[in-house]
Structures are given as structure tokens and as C-alpha cells.
Amino acid sequence: MTIFTNKWRSKIKNILIVGLSLFFTINVLANYLGNYNNNSYGINSTGNEYGAGNKYKSNSINNEYGEYGSKYSNKSVNNPYATNAPKLYDSQGNYRGRLNTTQILYQIHMADMVVNILQIA
Fold it and tell me: What tens digit of pLDDT does each residue of 59-92 get?
């Protein structure tokens, strides 16, 4: 009985190690920037000036001096020529395109969905 228990412990330990490795890998590669909507009360909303939409927050799309809000950054929503703008995902995790000033209107319909912004490194 002890051998059976040790085998299962080893398998569970391996599964946990792989799961945690994947979790940390995804978190290192992805930078969650918030939900792209105009909800002024949602803490993750880019429309909340005290949450994800804070113009002083380093990774806010509303920070005109930050990587994701500058009109010069290649990762910015405000640079119409950005080739690495943040990616948009709907609430089911489906990719919806990239967010920048030239693509907002025809890439997504804000009334139809809440969109998560995720920048993949």
C-alpha cells in the first residue's frame, strides 16, 4: 500500500510542477492591461481613472508617456502605425484583433462585448 501511495504522490507532484510552470510562464509572457470599456467603477476597466485607466499607471493605455499609451511606442494603442499594439480578447478568450487608434471601430463593437486587453511579449 505504501508503494501505491508514493507513486500517486510522485504523479501529483509532477502534475503540480508542470501546472505551476505553465502558470508562471504565461504570466511572464502576458501582461494584462485591463478591460477595454468605459465603466468608471470597474477596477479593471480602462475607463476607471483610479483603476486600470489611471493615467499615471506605467502600463495604462491612458498614460501618454507609458509604453502602451504613448503616440510613439510600437506597443501603444495611440500609435496608428504600431505593429505590436495590445491584443484584444473577448470574455470567452477568443482573439479579436489588436487595439490601436486606426482599428478600434472596425475590429470590435464595444456594445456587444467586454474586451480584455493582453499584451504578449
Answer: 999 999 999 999 999 999 988 888 888 888 888 8
DSSP state of 117: E
Residue with cell 499609451: 69
Domain ranges of the chain: 30-120
* All cell numbers assigned to 99: 487595439
R_g of the chain computed on alpha carbons: 19
CA dist 35 and 39 (Å) reads 9
Q: Is the pTM of this model over 0.90?
A: no
Distance between CA 12 and CA 80 in Å, rounded?
A: 48
Q: Distance between CA 89 and CA 104 in Å, rounded?
A: 13
CB 79 within 8 A of CB 71: yes
User: Residues near 44 by Cβ (< 8 Å), separated by ≥ 6?
Assistant: 34, 35, 51, 52
Given this model, what pLDDT does residue 24 score?
Answer: 46
